[in-house]
Amino acid sequence: MKVLEKYSFGIGDRFTRQGRAQLAAIVQAKKLGVDITPVWNKSNREHVTIHTQPDSLRAEADAAVKALGWTGSYYVDADHIGLKTVDSFLAASDFYTLDVADFSGKPADEASVKAFAAANTKFIGKLTIPGIEAPLEITEKTIMDAAGKFLLAIQEAGKIYRHIEEKKGRGNFVTEVSIDETDSPQSPTEMLFILSAIAAEGIPAQTVAPKFTGRFNKGVDYVGNLVQFEKEFNEDLAVIAFAVKEFGLPENLKLSVHSGSDKFSIYGPMGKAIKKYNAGLHVKTAGTTWLEELIGLACAGGSGLALAQEVYRKAFGRFDELCAPYSAVIDIDRAKLPSPDEVAAWDARRFAESLRHVQSNPAYNLHFRQLLHVGYKVAAEMGERYYTALDENEEVVARNVTENLLERHIKRIFLV
To answer: Can you list the positions of beta strands (E) in 63-108?
Structure first.
């Protein structure tokens, strides 16, 4: 059976050109004393937008591993897939993030709800979970409410899992269940019954992605109550540890943090918590590598800078179109966006410093960064022009990609 290691890192790569640069960060982390398993992730939406196929991500991962002589485990994640989209990923992927957001909050059939409630009546009363300060107060209504919100979604996850298992064979892939795209964070009690439902469906989940308090906007830092986030994160770790024993879930089951790239302010609390509980962690990043490509092109100057400026000009002009699919995970103040003419007058340093996620730099502009984050479609439409620019400036682009993952992400979570 494929067993996902304790620490794993999802490394999204929109254009499948930075696999070696991404893996180089993980190689360097290993030299610094932390073993991290790379997981290359890409969603169906990204493949459709960029006109790539899942096989291209597998080819990128395999090539990077070979080039760097990586001997550890690595995975290719079919990110946020459902029954309608999973089949095209079956040959290339060995990690599946089951996305059941469309089924959350919708009721399962009455018989299923009653059966689920009956199977969990033993928890009614005060339930003490090590690591959670106050006992959980559980009633029959508590269980029924949790079933009403999440049971249908987990049943759908079961259908997706069994479809994959039928095609690939049991134990030949890693399964993650994603429940992060809901309206509000799950309480510890809801997490308990979500995990109970996952076990009842026979899903050998090795990671679970819950919803946390606050905003996880694309490509920028966490926005929210840090104290509340830390409390939720620690409580989720405690519930997982309890549920593994109670429900017979995989011993390596761990939290997955989606949209985890650039959430610098929560990295400290996360690192502290996993050490406290001796827990595993999966952090999923996406988009941050694409932005480092733009930064690298800008730093190269000349035609590279001109192309980066062109991407911004076109993204600015297509604001509504590009932002609409990501409206729930971006907050852009259009008044704080520089005009395309202003950006066209920037030198390489000014462009890079405005985009690079260094909050102490007064030139950094999170609105500029978010628009370019969702503007990857513009580069995709450039086709070979964009790919040629990456190839011609490979060294400077790769340097930025590696530095970003190692210095601003991995070190801040695992090595502080």
So the answer is: 75-81, 95-99
Cβ within 8 Å of residue 10, ≥6 positions away: 39, 40, 41, 77, 79, 256, 260, 282, 283, 284, 285, 286
Q: CATH class for domain 7-286? A: alpha beta
Give me 40's structure tokens: 């290359």
Q: How many CB atoms lie within 10 A of CB 215?
A: 16
Cα distances from 328 to residues 64, 218, 365, in angstroms, run 33, 10, 20
The residues facing 349 across adjacent strands are none
pTM for this entry: 0.97
Whole-angstrom distance, CA of residue 383 vs CA of residue 55: 18
Q: Over the stretch 363-399, which tens digit does the pLDDT of each residue have?
A: 999 999 999 999 999 999 999 999 999 999 999 999 9
Identify the pLDDT of residue 408. 97
Q: Are 147 and 108 in contact (CB under 8 A)?
A: yes
What is the rounded CA–CA span in Å between residue 337 and residue 340? 9
Intervals of CATH 3.20.20.60 along the chain: 7-286
On whether the CB atoms of residues 379 and 15 are closer than 8 A, the answer is yes
Identify the residue whose tokens are 């899903």. Answer: 203
Is 379:2 a contact under the CB 8 Å cutoff?
no
Sequence length of the chain is 416
